[in-house]
Amino acid sequence: MNLQDKRELNTGFGDALARAFELVATPGIFALLGWLLDRRLGTSPLFAFVFFFIVLSYVVWKMYMTYVADMKRHEKGLGKVSDRVE
User: Fold this and answer.
1) Of 17, 47, 66, 74, which is most buried, counting CB atoms within 10 Å of its CB?
2) Which of 21, 23, 31, 66 is nearest to 39 (CA)?
3) With helix as H, strand as E and coil as C, how does 1-55 read?
């Protein structure tokens, strides 16, 4: 394995760790803020759930759109699959 392959592998691990942290920590932080707001207002954990699910939905959507853009960029670099099959 050459240096470029090792660098690419390490970058992939770093990107995966960053995405995992973003997927878990960001909705958790907003759920905590919602819980604090619920405590102050005396409501049920309504804001905690709403903040959690809104932020979780956004993070998943953002990751999906990033994936789609990366795949389009990758396909553009490789050429069309149908061109290579025939």
Assistant:
1) 47
2) 31
3) CCHHHHHHHHHHHHHHHHHHHHHHHHHHHHHHHHHHHHHHHCCCCHHHHHHHHHH
